[in-house]
UniProtKB/TrEMBL annotation:
Transposase Tc1-like domain location: 3-71
Gene Ontology BP term (one): DNA transposition
Residues annotated as domain Tc1-like transposase DDE: 80-222
Molecular function via GO: DNA binding
PANTHER family: HTH PSQ-TYPE DOMAIN-CONTAINING PROTEIN, TRANSPOSABLE ELEMENT TC3 TRANSPOSASE-LIKE PROTEIN
Protein name as it appears in the record: TCB1
Gene name in the database record: TCB1
Entry-linked InterPro entries: RNaseH_sf (IPR036397), Tc1-like_DDE_dom (IPR038717), Transposase_Tc1-like (IPR002492)
Length: 271
């Protein structure tokens, strides 16, 4: 069947594109509602695609290797980890709606996932960190952050955060963003003898702080359109409302996340 073959080539193909292909190839003028009904009658689900990082072969291997290592982290060690990250909060939803069609149970297949890219414009950027016991100061990033500016953030906030929650000999997690691995940051962290957690590339699904960013974005959705000042105020308000119970639930899911990655042999998980 022509429609099934075209869908197999591209699960994101739009109804207008299929309309044009049918007209060009078969001189058939088929309505979008008829096309939509065809997919529905053949058990296809139409939905917004999951957005996850594009996983490359070498990074799949690293995810698999490190997920096994993470499964060996004890509960006491987990309580010493400080997870950090940057996140983007859009002023408006400017990403554009896209849809994907898939058969039941196939939502998490790579062909049905929309690869994400790092941060764009029209947004507010923040840096934050979480521990088993609480949240750090939240830092707003006004311009494109350099390695030097990232080092300044760590110098001002990392040890202050660890001291506040009395985390002795903490383990610091950061992802593999070029700013984080720049020579100035590597030298600084080595100089102050920070114990770094080796982290696999393209692995937000392993980082508990991703739950926090998602939680904040859900809370923000109820406010509708906000200007930049209002958005910052709301983000701060929600960030500081996050309590230890919520954080501990997310921390306690870490081994479960690692197990999912291990079972998937480093490929995408349900997280």
């Amino acid at each position: 069947m022509f429609l099934v073959k075209e869908h197999a080539k591209d699960h994101f193909i739009t109804l207008p594109t299929l309309q044009k292909k049918l007209l060009d190839k078969f001189k058939l003028n088929v309505s979008q509602s008829t096309l939509s009904r065809f997919f529905k009658n053949n058990d296809f689900i139409t939905n917004h695609p999951l957005k996850k990082p594009l996983l490359r072969g070498v990074n799949i291997e690293k995810r698999f290797r490190l997920s096994k290592k993470f499964l060996g982290i004890t509960d006491d060690q987990l309580k010493r980890i400080i997870f950090s990250d940057e996140s983007k909060f859009n002023l408006i939803n400017s990403d554009g709606a896209r849809y994907v069609r898939y058969l039941p149970g196939k939502k998490h297949k790579t062909s049905n996932i929309l690869p994400t890219v790092k941060h764009g414009g029209g947004s507010v950027m923040v840096w934050g960190a979480i521990s088993y016991y609480g949240v750090s100061d939240l830092v707003f990033i006004e311009d494109k952050m350099t390695g030097g500016e990232y080092k300044t953030i760590l110098a001002r906030h990392l040890f202050k955060f660890a001291r506040k929650h009395q985390i002795d000999d903490f383990i610091f997690m950061q992802d593999n963003d070029p700013k984080h691995t720049s020579s100035i940051v590597v030298y600084y962290l080595d100089e102050i003898e920070v114990n770094l957690l080796e982290w696999p590339p393209q692995s937000p699904d392993l980082n508990p702080i991703e739950h926090i960013w998602a939680y904040i974005k859900r809370k923000l959705a109820v406010f509708g359109k906000l200007n930049k000042k209002e958005l910052k105020e709301r983000i701060l308000e929600i960030w500081h409302s996050i309590d230890a119970n919520m954080l501990q639930n997310y921390f306690n899911s870490f081994h479960k996340r690692a197990l999912e990655v291990y079972k998937a042999k480093g490929k995408h998980t349900h997280y």
